[in-house]
Specification:
The chain is mainly beta. It is 4% helix and 32% strand.
């Protein structure tokens, strides 16, 4: 890794735990930086746990921090972030904590201090105000919501059809 690049914006960071791991990218150019646990914890099947990172950051107004699961952990062990993505607002100055869940039905997940548990992606956001109106302009989609665009041939009356098994 190349470390701090003068072309990348710097985000102020405080270690609330002196041994907390500074967020790093696994590879140059990655969108996310890894967040690490500051505690040893066992997450039982189906259990949710709030895990600290020992870090606080100062995001600039007009940006947001989004906490995503690490894809390898999700695929291999069922570890995910409950409120995916978790949101860190620009005005928040407390410890970044990650609400993790073990989706595996049988196997506990053991995390150790220093383990990479999630990814943080910092993005620009459009800050807007809302104005109440009496009606909205028409679009081709209209009010069509969940499932309105179709493409669910495997669903029959709410049941999933497994090929070769019937409804």
């Amino acid at each position: 890794m190349s470390g701090l690049s003068p072309s990348l914006p710097a985000i102020a960071l405080v270690r609330l735990d002196p041994d907390a791991t500074i967020p790093r990218r696994a590879h140059d150019g990655d969108a996310g930086v890894d967040l690490c646990s500051t505690q040893d914890v066992t997450i039982e099947p189906g259990e949710r746990v709030l895990v600290g990172t020992g870090l606080a950051i100062a995001l600039p107004i007009g940006t947001v921090g989004l906490i995503h699961p690490r894809s390898g952990l999700a695929a291999k062990s069922g570890l995910s972030v409950v409120n995916t993505p978790g949101t860190i607002d620009a005005g928040y100055r407390g410890e970044i904590k990650v609400c993790l869940i073990n989706h595996d039905l049988r196997t506990p997940i053991v995390l150790r201090r220093g383990d990479r548990i999630a990814q943080l992606v910092v993005q620009r956001v459009e800050l807007v105000d809302f104005v109440e109106v009496t009606s909205l302009d028409e679009t081709s989609r209209g009010a069509g919501g969940y499932g309105s665009s179709g493409g669910h041939a495997s669903l029959v009356d709410g049941a999933v059809v497994v090929p070769g098994k019937g409804a």
